Amino acid sequence: MQYKGEIVVCLAKDGGFQVLSKDGTPLRSIPLPFTKCNKVFAPEAIALDSNDNILIVDSMRNCLLVFSGKDGHLIAECARESLCNPYGVALDRAGRVIISDSSNQIKFF
Questions:
Q1: DSSP structure class, residue 13
Q2: Does the reported pTM lie above 0.70?
Q3: Dist CA 47 CA 108 (whole Å)
Q4: In 58, 69, 81, 88, which residue has its Cα 20 to 30 A from 107's Cα atom?
């Protein structure tokens, strides 16, 4: 996922996001709050919104997690009651969040 010309990847086992340059050089890390608290976290897909927030669907928690792209703090945990093992996330041109899950449905938020 690109972030201001950079690439953002989620490394749950390493405890955060890694930001890379276009050529793959590591630039910085953003820690995740869940690994510090030993909470279950299983990222399946990642997207960025127009404010550079990082959106992740978590198949263990069955939700959408929104993190600040600046410091990695959790902004929101959404759609917990609406998702079943989510595995894809994207945003459309209008800024709506689109999530696919194992119920074979595409859900818009």
A1: G
A2: yes
A3: 14
A4: 69
